[in-house]
Amino acid sequence: MDKIVIEGGVPLHGEVTISGAKNAALPILAATLLAPGAYRLHNVPPLADIRTTKRLLAIMGVQFEDGDPLLVDTSNLTGWMAPYELVKTMRAAVLVLGPLVARAHQAIVSLPGGCAIGPRPIDLHLKGLEALGVKINLNQGYVEAKAHRLHGADIHLEIPSVTGTENLLMAATLAQGTTIIRNAAREPEVGDLARFLRAMGAHIEGIDSEVLTIHGVSALTPTEYTIMSDRIEAGTYLAAAAITKGEVIIKNAPVPHLSAVLEKFQAAGVRLTTSDEQITVHSGHTLTGVDVKTLPYPGFPTDMQAQFMALMCLAKGASLITETIFENRFMHVLELRRLGADITVSGNHALVRGRRQLSGAPVMATDLRASASLIIAGLAAQGTTEVHRVYHLDRGYAHLVEKLSQLGARIKRVPA
Ligand code: EPZ
Fold first, then answer.
1. Res 89 pLDDT > 90
2. Which of ligand 1's atoms lies nearest the C-alpha of 232?
3. 82, 108 contact by CB (below 8 A)
4. Confidence (pTM)
5. Active-site annotation holder among 38, 86, 104, 115
6. Pocket of ligand 1 from Cβ distances under 6 Å
7. Atom number, ligand 1, closest to the C-alpha of residue 166
8. Residue 255 near residue 215 (C-beta atoms within 8 A)
9. What is the mean pLDDT of residues 265-283?
10. Do residues 404 and 411 make contact, with C-beta atoms less than 8 angstroms apart?
11. 304 Cβ contact partners less than 8 Å away, ≥ 6 residues apart
12. What pLDDT was estimated at residue 114?
């Protein structure tokens, strides 16, 4: 296992280019199961979760040729099982469920179980698939799904689940008749999947809205597609530039998808100029504490909560951070406290009292975005910060150490 060692206190300067969105690439890779043939996918980020998904699809007979574009060939599907060993390392593997029952009329997918940030059930996925005519049986920790021809349904999602919406959207494209998904997730990555499906010949209305209407077709066809940029990666570098009071240009940033995030950074005193695909963070600001509440899109994203909390640790005044999406997404608090942060947690609220400085220490990553918040805090802390269990970071950040080094950070990755 590696660790990342940072000598903090260096203002970041220069340009960083954002990679493809992990949470768009994952469902789009799963969607290639819907139609046999060869696909060309551009801007697929080189992440651990992408490699895990490719391994999972390869078990089912899918073939790949690495590069940009990534070539995917789903002509010979030989299996429809997502094993526990794999699903337990990446919940998003449940995204094969919808495409498999639509294409192969069956699937055996391990229940994902919980993870560091919460129980993460998939009851809404299963309820929606049953409405589409899928027979669901839970057996020894596996979902056994069978379906003849799926039929359209009018589905209301109790919670606007992102992967729940994506599973149902993918299954509905090949169902007989019309499906309506109400209270659908509106995250941009859901829209990217919908546009990919439309490029494959799916008939989808209401893309990016909370009501998706899908008119099933008898077959889809492989296509070529470019994955959107990762708004959470962009927000993460924004926090790194702001906390070090640097001057950074963030290129390939999906600015229209970041309005709730940019609004909060500006309210906290960060000086920004933006164009459609670029954010410039200007130095010389004084950070002040602002309250933030995570919400489904277009609200402030839960995937930016930990990174923003790190920034608030050095703001003047207090910041009340409320996490409304996951039950246990404050694992980074205990580690930020080791760096000298003053944070009090009560239920799903974290009260951050800004300090004048943080001081470096060894800390441990617990989940993907928590690890990012520790890196961000370490970049500003006086002295040396060591972040352990960095495999969490590899899941969602491509070339993080290289990108930060290019911005002048004193950071390196070494064996722990
Ligand atoms: C997606 O997870 C993202 N993952 C997460 O990103 C992100 O944090 C989350 O959406 C919220 O935006 C991918 O897209 C691969 P949900 P997902 O279903 O779909 C409850 C990252 O850092 N729920 O929208 O699993 C659930 O427990 C990751 O990149 C049910 O109760 O999240 C949670 O409290 C972390 N039943 C809430 O809904 C269900 O059937 C939102 O979950 C489904 C969800």
1. no
2. 29
3. yes
4. 0.97
5. 115
6. 22-23, 26, 91-92, 118, 120-125, 159, 161-164, 185, 187, 302-303, 325-326, 368-369, 396
7. 19
8. no
9. 96
10. yes
11. 232, 235, 236, 239, 261, 294, 369
12. 66
CA of 246 to the centre of ligand 1 (A): 33
Q: Which of 226, 261, 286 is the C-terminal boundary of a domain?
A: 226
More confident site: 89 or 238:
238
CA of 89 to the centre of ligand 1 (A): 15
Q: Total domain count for the chain? A: 2
- Looking at this protein, which amino acid is placed at residue 19? S
Q: How far is the CA of 284 from the centre of ligand 1 (A)?
A: 36
The range of the structural domain enclosing residue 185 comes to: 22-226
Do residue 394 and residue 273 come from a single domain? yes
Look up the CATH number of the domain holding residue 57. 3.65.10.10
For residue 164, name the pLDDT band (cuts at 50, 70, 90): very high
pLDDT interval class at 327 (50, 70, 90): confident
* 235-253: average pLDDT: 98
- pLDDT score of 113 more than 80: no
In angstroms, what is the span from residue 241 Cα to ligand 1's centroid?
27
The residues, any chain, with a CB within 8 Å of residue 67's CB and separated by 6 or more, are none
- Note if 313 is an active site residue: no
Residue with CA nearest ligand 1 atom 39: 122
C-alpha 54/C-alpha 24 separation (Å) is 14
